[in-house]
Design a protein that fits this description.
Layout lengths: L1 H12 L6 H7 L4 H17 L1 H11 L1 H19 L5 H15 L2 H12 L2 H32 L2 H20 L18 H12 L2 H21 L2 H9 L3 H19 L2 H28 L9 H22 L7 H30 L1 H27 L4
Helix pairs in contact: 1-5, 1-8, 1-9, 2-3, 3-6, 3-16, 4-5, 4-16, 5-6, 5-7, 5-9, 7-16, 8-13, 8-15, 11-15, 11-16, 11-17, 12-13, 13-15, 14-15, 14-17, 16-17
């Protein structure tokens, strides 16, 4: 059930990539202005994780996910009725706030249930569901955008989320929780004390900075790939969706083998190879001469994301085990704070310098981030940090 919920949230989260041009035309806005609807979603998606994490540590992770998914279903369906960009922004804000609970609390539950040596494989299996959601979102988005409209797509996702919510209601209670240390009493003071306790860990501060910058580059820049493909190659939404689906295919395929790869090259190797593939993929998109060859760098970026990001996620589940929901929620907050800021900032860069500059800056930033992260992981593996 948690995998199904994560699948649906991922379907919705990647909804804009192939449809940005259609939304801009229908709502009489620029590409960069419609891109801010992504920011309107990802900022509350990150921010509300700060609320859901401590609540779930106290009341139960599955219980919180179940309620949030019901709100998410209603908000997503209503997005299809939006008559202006301002209304769409408001509805996406509310939907992002509800969706914030689903993936981080599912990851926190995996942290409760699975020993560390098997946890990255379990997280990769869960993320394969979210990756499938990303893949189908862009592909289905392209098909529906071509045949029907973006409004029909929102309605389709809203109904699907209601079906999964109804199935989750049949779960009488949360599965047994791993024994944790006693939590402090409730209230805002106690909530912030939990975050202070997590942030007191040196590695936590480094990890959250890395994932914030990853959000800027990976999530922020990917938002504009669909618009780039239409602007450069004049592609229909169907082909844009199928090309972007290669990213999800790469993440899905790699999630099936990441445990074996980790055993061979270790976590520092995963960080290095994954980051280089993401950065190199962005750098390779712009000089690609024909549209169908773009599938290769997009596929490579998906492979790199699974290697790089699941390594960070696995580390986040072990920062403070007795406050796992809080720690993983702060991880998600950092990622989507970066995604929101990256979408807005890269939109400004797009308006001023064009798509080529956006792709080159994104690729260069990712390679620099990879070098710093790899050095830290290698030093930690050697016992120097």
């Amino acid at each position: 059930m948690l995998a199904a919920a994560g699948f649906l949230v991922s379907l919705d989260r990647a909804i804009f990539a192939p449809l940005l041009p259609a939304l801009a035309r229908d709502l009489d806005a620029t590409i960069s202005a419609v891109g801010l609807a992504v920011t309107a979603y990802v900022l509350p998606y990150g921010g509300f994780q700060l609320v859901f994490g401590p609540v779930a540590d106290r009341t139960g992770k599955v219980r919180v996910v179940r309620l949030a998914l019901a709100l998410f279903a209603v908000g997503t369906g209503l997005c299809g009725l939006a008559t202006s960009l301002a209304l769409l922004d408001a509805l996406r804000f509310l939907t992002g706030a509800a969706a914030a609970a689903v993936i981080p609390l599912s990851l926190a539950f995996i942290g409760d249930a699975v020993p560390y040596e098997r946890r990255q494989a379990a997280i990769a299996n869960f993320m394969s569901a979210t990756s499938l959601g990303n893949a189908l979102s862009t592909a289905v988005g392209g098909v529906v955008g071509q045949v029907l409209s973006w409004r029909a797509l929102f309605a389709f996702y809203g109904v699907g989320a209601l079906v999964v919510t109804a199935a989750m209601v049949r779960l009488a209670s949360d599965p047994p929780k791993a024994p944790d240390a006693p939590l402090p009493p409730g209230g805002w003071t106690a909530t912030w004390s939990r975050y202070a306790r997590v942030l007191a860990v040196d590695r936590a501060r480094f990890l959250y900075c890395v994932v914030l910058l990853e959000g800027v580059v990976v999530q922020g820049a990917f938002t504009y790939l669909g618009a780039y493909l239409e602007a450069r190659f004049a592609l229909a939404y169907l082909w844009i969706g199928l090309l972007l689906a290669c990213y999800g295919i790469g993440t899905l395929a790699t999630s099936r083998v990441v445990r074996r790869v980790r055993a061979r090259i270790g976590e520092p190797g995963l960080v290095l190879i994954g980051g280089v593939l993401i950065g190199g993929g962005y750098l390779a998109v712009s000089p690609t001469p024909v549209w169908w060859l773009v599938a290769l760098p997009v596929l490579v970026m998906g492979i790199g994301f699974t290697l790089f990001h699941t390594t960070l996620q696995t580390a986040a589940t072990e920062l403070v085990p007795e406050l796992r929901g809080t720690a993983v929620s702060l991880f998600g907050f950092s990622l989507f704070l970066g995604a929101g800021a990256g979408t807005a900032g890269l939109g400004v860069l797009l308006d001023r310098a064009g798509f080529t500059a956006l792709l080159l800056v994104s690729g260069g930033l990712m390679l620099g981030l990879t070098a710093v992260t790899w050095r830290h992981w290698r030093a930690r593996a050697a016992g120097r940090v």
